[in-house]
Specification:
The chain is elongated. The chain starts with a helix and ends with a strand. Helices cover 61% and strands 15% of the residues. The relative contact order is 0.08. The protein has 296 residues and is an alpha+beta fold.
C-alpha cells in the first residue's frame, strides 16, 4: 500500500513536471517568437533609416552637382559673350577700313575685285564666328521657352525675307498648305525661325535659275511637319550620313559660301523641341528637308 502511494506520488509529480514542461515550451516559443519579431522589426527599421540616409546623401549630391552645373553654364555664357566681342572686334575694324578704301580710292577693276574678295572673306569669317557661337550656346542651354505659335505665319515671314533673293535668281517658291489655315505648335519661334532661314537659304543657294522650291506644311495626329523640296544640285547618297556633322560640307557645295554648321545647328534646335529632322537627296536632282515637330 505504501508502494502504491509512492507510485501515485511519482505519477502526480511526473504529470506535474510534464505539464510544467509543456507550459514552459509554449511560453518559450511565444517569447522567442516575440523576440524574433522584435528583432525583425528592429532590423527593418535600421534598413529603412539607412535607406533614408542614403537618399538624403543622394539628394545632397545631386543638389551640389546641379549648383556646379549652373555655375559652369553661367561661366560658359560669360566666356561666350567675351569671345563674341573679342572675335568680332577685329572684323569691325576690317569693315571700317574697307569702307574707307571703297569711298576714297579711285580703284581700277582689279583693285575693285580685290576689295570685293576681302569683303567676302570678312563676311565668311563673320558667318563662321556667329555660327560657332550660336552652336556653343545651343549646347550649353538646358531650358527652352516655348509658346503657341502659328507655324504657317512663321514660315510665310521667312519666305517673305527670301523673296528678293529668289526673284534675283529666278527661282519660284510655292507654298502648299494642304487646306490648312492655321497650324498652332508650342515652340520657340526665334529658334524655329532660324531653322527655317537656314533651310530656305540652302535651297536657294544650291538652286540654279528657273528652278522651283516647294514648301509644304502638313499635320498628323502626332506631328506638325514642314517639308522644303528643291530642284538644286543635290547631295551624293554616300555623303548623306554626314551632313549633320559639324563643319561637314558635301562635295556638291564646292564654290558656294557656307560654314558647314547650318544643318548641325538646325538638328540641335529641332531635337531641343523633341522633334526630328531628315534630309533626302539625289545628286543633280534636288534635296528635300523634312522637319517634324511634336503637336504636344
Amino acid at each position: 500500500s505504501e508502494l502504491h502511494y509512492e507510485l501515485e506520488d511519482y505519477k502526480q509529480a511526473y504529470d506535474y513536471f510534464k505539464a510544467a514542461d509543456k507550459h514552459f515550451r509554449v511560453n518559450y516559443r511565444e517569447q522567442m517568437g516575440k523576440q524574433i519579431a522584435f528583432l525583425e522589426v528592429q532590423q527593418r527599421t535600421r534598413e529603412a533609416l539607412y535607406e533614408v540616409e542614403l537618399n538624403q546623401r543622394e539628394v545632397e549630391r545631386l543638389k551640389k552637382e546641379n549648383e556646379h552645373a549652373e555655375m559652369l553654364t553661367k561661366l560658359k555664357d560669360k566666356l561666350l559673350n567675351e569671345a563674341s566681342h573679342d572675335l568680332k572686334h577685329p572684323l569691325t575694324a576690317i569693315y571700317l577700313y574697307l569702307d574707307v578704301l571703297e569711298r576714297h580710292i579711285k580703284a581700277d577693276e582689279k583693285t575693285h575685285q580685290t576689295l570685293h574678295k576681302l569683303r567676302s572673306s570678312a563676311n565668311q569669317m563673320e558667318m563662321l564666328i556667329t555660327s560657332l557661337l550660336d552652336f556653343a550656346r545651343l549646347q550649353s542651354q538646358s531650358s527652352l521657352e516655348r509658346e503657341n505659335t502659328d507655324l504657317i505665319r512663321l514660315v510665310r515671314n521667312v519666305l517673305r525675307t527670301f523673296q528678293p533673293m529668289a526673284q534675283k535668281k529666278r527661282v519660284a517658291i510655292r507654298m502648299d498648305l494642304n487646306g490648312l489655315t492655321q497650324l498652332l505648335v508650342k515652340l520657340n519661334p526665334n529658334e524655329i525661325k532660324r531653322v527655317g532661314n537656314n533651310v530656305i537659304s540652302n535651297s536657294l543657294k544650291y538652286s540654279t535659275s528657273n528652278k522651283r522650291i516647294v514648301v509644304r506644311l502638313t499635320r498628323s495626329e502626332q506631328w506638325s511637319k514642314l517639308t522644303v523640296a528643291d530642284e538644286g544640285v543635290g547631295i551624293h547618297v554616300d555623303e548623306l550620313p554626314f551632313i549633320f556633322d559639324q563643319f561637314y560640307r558635301a562635295s556638291s557645295s564646292s564654290g558656294i559660301e557656307g560654314t558647314g554648321l547650318g544643318l548641325a545647328i538646325c538638328k540641335a534646335i529641332v531635337e531641343r523641341h523633341n522633334g526630328r529632322i531628315e534630309v533626302q537627296s539625289v545628286l543633280n536632282k534636288g534635296t528635300t528637308v523634312i522637319i517634324c515637330l511634336p503637336n504636344q
